[in-house]
Give the backbone structure.
Amino acid sequence: GAGVSQTPSNKVTEKGKYVELRCDPISGHTALYWYRQSLGQGPEFLIYFQGTGAADDSGLPNDRFFAVRPEGSVSTLKIQRTERGDSAVYLCASRLGLNTEAFFGQGTRLTVV
Amino acid sequence: GNSVTQMEGPVTLSEEAFLTINCTYTATGYPSLFWYVQYPGEGLQLLLKATKADDKGSNKGFEATYRKETTSFHLEKGSVQVSDSAVYFCALSRNFGNEKLTFGTGTRLTIIP
């Protein structure tokens, strides 16, 4: 596709359930980022992949959050034992390489009830 | 650590008014500075950036100058249009913008005809 694609666009889940959020970056983009945006706040960094490896996972809030990018393209953010405080818009961004612009997807709105 | 403080909104202006949205930052070293914009129903888009002191970023009539002495990157536009209504985020990134972005909380701008 032309841009960064995130699916689903909306996800409602019950407290305690497991969820997976998917990000399809722009083709050929080697860098991929996940951010979380709570209501009324700016995006907060979660994790950064360069290729298949997590170059920086310092933003993951706890061990319930995990992300993978096994083939260096699509990435999945996984949240175990969801809590109401996990409700937010989860954004994905990708970049072609060094010194290039990061392009954002439209996000997945996660609601934990 | 790194942080960005931006002017709280919402901001409401009449068409053709002058716009300033203040942004100040705290960072180690010499970060790159960015303004991102989120139009209704769309993903975050890069509006402009500056990578070193005294650089001026500009796009779509918007400008911002990297002021190291005041650690600021205020966004300005001489004559706003209804189509400029959006949420604006100031952000920084180290290593010439190749690392994670740290965002401010966002400023919602509404332009009335």
